[in-house]
Amino acid sequence: MSRAGVRVALVPGVLALLPEYASLEDPVAELRAAAEAAVSVLGPRVRVVASDGARARVGAALVAAVGATLVAPEDADETGVLVVGNGSAKRTEKAPGHFDERAEAFDAALADGLRSGRVDVDLELAAELWADVAALGSLDGALEGVGTAEVLYEDAPFGVAYWVMTWV
Questions:
Q1: Which of 14, 17, 63, 72 has the fewest CB atoms within 10 Å around its CB?
Q2: Rounded to two decimals, what is the model's pTM?
């Protein structure tokens, strides 16, 4: 996925990051600020990798918010890649998938892998925990030699594990 000189960022695919949810009382203001900061380091031509159309729309909105241009998947002139995904959605009783005691350990292992640039996900467990990890597979091997991730945001609001990270 990544070539020398191409920067990578990870943001969650939470629909609340779409511009229509930003207002005087933005429900995810801190997350939005971190996501826009991460996307802003990707340069002027950004490719979005997401598991589905809704999450791709979140990525495209963030690219537009920082004034970058969205490029096609095979564009050789990309300067950055925005990966859209998140951890489990079963961290609390009020989470979309309700509570699952395995969620916290799953998210901790995923976060450690992301920080070190080694993404190794149990896809069956991820599906059981409602984790959106399909796009994270594109990171596998792409982060070699880029060093450790800079974590701009890490929390589980709404019982869903979200990270905003950059590898530059």
A1: 72
A2: 0.91
Spatial CA neighbour of 163 closest among 139, 127, 141: 139
* In 30-105, beta strands by DSSP E: 45-49, 69-70, 80-84
Pairing, β 69-70 against β 45-49: parallel
CA atoms within 13 A on the CB side of 99: 4
The distance of Cα 103 from the centroid of its chain, to the nearest Å, equals 17
Taking the C-alpha atoms of residue 90 and residue 28, their distance in angstroms, rounded to an integer, is 19
Task: Report the C-alpha gap between 126 and 5 in whole angstroms.
Answer: 31
* Structural domains of the chain ordered from first start: 7-167 (3.40.830.10)
Residues 6+ apart with CB under 8 A from 91: 99, 103, 104, 107, 156, 159, 160, 161
Task: Encode pLDDT of 53-87 as tens digits.
Answer: 999 999 999 999 999 999 987 677 889 999 999 99
Sheet holding 7-11, edge to edge: 69-70, 45-49, 80-84, 7-11, 162-167, 150-155
